[in-house]
Structures are given as C-alpha cells and as structure tokens.
Design a protein that fits this description.
This protein has 110 residues and is of the alpha+beta class. It has a single domain, classed as hypothetical protein tt1805, CATH 3.40.1530.20. The protein is built from 2 helices and 5 strands. It has a 5-stranded mixed sheet with strand order 1-5-2-3-4.
Length: 110
Amino acid sequence: MMPELKTSIWVSALLRRAETGTAYCALTKKGDDDAGAVLVKVCTLDGEALLYQPIRNMQGERVWLPKGPLAEREIDQIIARRIKTDPDMWVVEIEDKQGRHFLTEGIEAQ
C-alpha cells in the first residue's frame, strides 16, 4: 500500500481537477491538514446532490461510496452530522450539471 498524500495536498489536487474541468468548486470546510477525512458533495444544479464518502476496500485502498442523488438539503444535513462527530473533516463542494465528481480513486456501487 502506497503512503497517502497529506489531505491538504489531495484536496488541492481535487479542486484543481474540477476547475480544469470547468466546474465550480469550493472548499466549504477545512479540516486537519495531514489526515482529516474528506467528503465530496456534487451539486447537479437541479436541487439534488450526491455525497461521496471515503471507505477502505478489502485491499485497504481508499474508494468512494456514493449517496444519492438526494435533495441537496438532505445531503447538507448528512454533512452537518458528520462534522459534529469529526471536526477534522474536510468538505469539498463541486457544482456540475453533468454530476462529475473528479475523483481519481474507485467508486463503490450503491
């Protein structure tokens, strides 16, 4: 298993990929620079959103578990609950009509 990048560097790369892909993106919550978990919210600009949460697969690799699409306010409530239990968490928000997440790691099926 490869050592992971510091969270701050990984988030910067995700934001850059989204910007390069012409999506609007923002860091809406900054967490621990070195090891904070990251939630990625993707708004499709139709009142709905998806939430990507990191998990480890059987090989110990980080993959993303999608939740949604749900009403954006429901995704915001999930994020608020997670932040209460993990104040070191990061939240990246991407607005993209096509629903692109710009993650490079695998996505688990729902």
